[in-house]
């Protein structure tokens, strides 16, 4: 990447002037065209000098507004001002940048955006830098290739002395912030081609977002082409990788990565163990998940509520809900209060096994009701528990378990089309003496 020969020269202008020295370029460009380019460049530089002299005054906006500068402003002249080494105050440049935008209809150049963003990052003004990069993407992404934005920032980064590489992190974060995850990942790949790599923190966050959005191709591209080639993964990288393998159903690879990180001197933390335990439970490896729980204790890592809830869910999926109940008792004994997820998982497990007695025993337990009501994620639903608990009219729930009551057909409204005013319904069978409280009877009626 060629550095500019002068203070003001943008990459485009520099290429134009360089062509003057090349005989092949002289054949393709007329003398008048080259002369016009030189004159335009000279005029922009002189105009920029005039603007810079006014920026030294506190009332520079008033001085410029009362002159002919607003009428003569153009993107190339503004670029010259921003690239001038004489102005060392990024806040002043930012104010001038915004003021100049309000004075002309033309968009700022890519180089202006990138130069300003780099300067702002160099003085740790990361918030304004994020705003400039967001504006840069919105202004130029449609008309410029993705590579052009990254290359422009790389050029400005090299042109400024002691530049802060955080500008590349902020670019990736900006893409993600505005919902352009694919562009964020592809920008990382372009940066790699230019010899730049975002921080491991930024890459870990990007990998995690790609995994959550199930962008499998980009996930492995970023991991294989950037992290494996240029950066040593840390515990967060390995944990994200294990989570990705589990999510994509490649549990053997998840185990391999877990073993590999230990061999490479990267010690798994509690989150790493919980991630693999969850993956094993989802894929039927409950026995191995319990081995990992024991291994956590040996390494003085504390199993938390997530660990226990995951194991309870794994047992219930294997129709071992009674073992899940014992595990929940163990959880309470060591002082870890179960949350609503753990309780409802166990209740659901009993129901799926046909053990309605234990399901209702748990659902009607005062202790469990108090725990559910105290949970901030569930309290609103539990206070109106009649919405999801059927009560038997005139009897306790437990008295009807062994009686095999006569069933009645009922119809539940699933959805209503506002245009046709027709409802989609589903048919269910319930004991004929069950009822739904009147205040929640909307959408449920006798067929």
Automatic annotation (TrEMBL):
Keywords: Repeat. PPR repeats lie at residues 164-198, 234-268, 269-303, 304-338. GO terms for molecular function: mRNA binding. Signal peptide: none annotated. Coiled coil: none annotated. It comes from the Eukaryota. InterPro entries: Mito_RNA-Proc/Resp (IPR051240), PPR_rpt (IPR002885), TPR-like_helical_dom_sf (IPR011990). NCBIfam families: PPR. Belongs to the PPR family. P subfamily. PANTHER family: PENTATRICOPEPTIDE REPEAT-CONTAINING PROTEIN 1, MITOCHONDRIAL, PENTATRICOPEPTIDE REPEAT-CONTAINING PROTEIN 2. This is Pentatricopeptide repeat-containing protein. It comes from Aristolochia fimbriata (White veined hardy Dutchman's pipe vine).
């Amino acid at each position: 990447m060629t550095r500019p020969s002068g203070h003001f020269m943008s990459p485009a202008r520099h290429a134009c002037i360089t062509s003057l020295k090349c005989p092949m370029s002289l054949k393709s460009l007329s003398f008048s065209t080259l002369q016009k380019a030189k004159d335009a460049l000279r005029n922009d530089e002189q105009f920029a000098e005039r603007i810079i002299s006014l920026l030294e005054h506190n009332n520079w906006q008033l001085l410029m507004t009362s002159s002919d500068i607003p009428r003569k402003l153009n993107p190339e002249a503004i670029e010259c001002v921003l690239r001038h080494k004489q102005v060392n105050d990024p806040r002043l440049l930012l104010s001038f940048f915004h003021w100049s935008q309000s004075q002309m209809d033309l968009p700022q150049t890519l180089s202006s955006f990138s130069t300003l963003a780099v300067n702002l990052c160099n003085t740790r003004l990361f918030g304004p830098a994020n705003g400039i990069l967001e504006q840069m993407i919105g202004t130029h992404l449609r008309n410029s290739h993705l590579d052009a934005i990254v290359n422009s920032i790389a050029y400005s980064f090299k042109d400024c002395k002691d530049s802060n590489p955080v500008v590349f992190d902020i670019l990736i974060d900006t893409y993600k912030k505005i919902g352009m995850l694919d562009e964020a990942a592809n920008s990382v790949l372009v940066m790699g081609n230019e010899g730049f790599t975002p921080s491991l923190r930024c890459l870990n966050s990007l990998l995690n977002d790609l995994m959550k959005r199930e962008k499998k191709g980009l996930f492995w591209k970023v991991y294989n082409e950037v992290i494996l080639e240029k950066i040593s993964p840390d515990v967060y990288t390995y944990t994200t990788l294990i989570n990705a393998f589990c999510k994509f159903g490649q549990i053997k690879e998840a185990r391999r990565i877990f073993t590999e990180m230990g061999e490479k001197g990267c010690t798994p933390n509690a989150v790493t163990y919980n991630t693999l335990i969850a993956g094993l439970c989802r894929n039927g490896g409950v026995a191995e998940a319990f081995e990992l729980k024991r291994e956590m204790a040996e390494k003085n890592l504390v199993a938390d509520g997530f660990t226990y809830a995951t194991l309870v869910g794994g047992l219930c999926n294997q129709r071992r809900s009674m073992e899940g109940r014992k595990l929940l008792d163990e959880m309470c004994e060591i002082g870890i209060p179960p949350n609503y997820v753990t309780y409802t998982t166990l209740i659901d497990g009993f129901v799926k096994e046909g053990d309605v007695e234990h399901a209702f025993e748990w659902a009607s337990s005062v202790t469990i009701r108090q725990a559910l009501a105290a949970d901030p994620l569930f309290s609103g639903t539990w206070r109106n528990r009649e919405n999801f608990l059927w009560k038997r009219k005139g009897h306790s729930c437990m008295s009807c378990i062994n009686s095999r009551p006569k069933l009645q057909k009922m119809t539940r409204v699933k959805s209503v089309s506002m245009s046709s005013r027709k409802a989609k319904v589903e048919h269910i069978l319930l004991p004929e003496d069950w009822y739904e409280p009147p205040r929640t009877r909307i959408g449920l009626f006798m067929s």
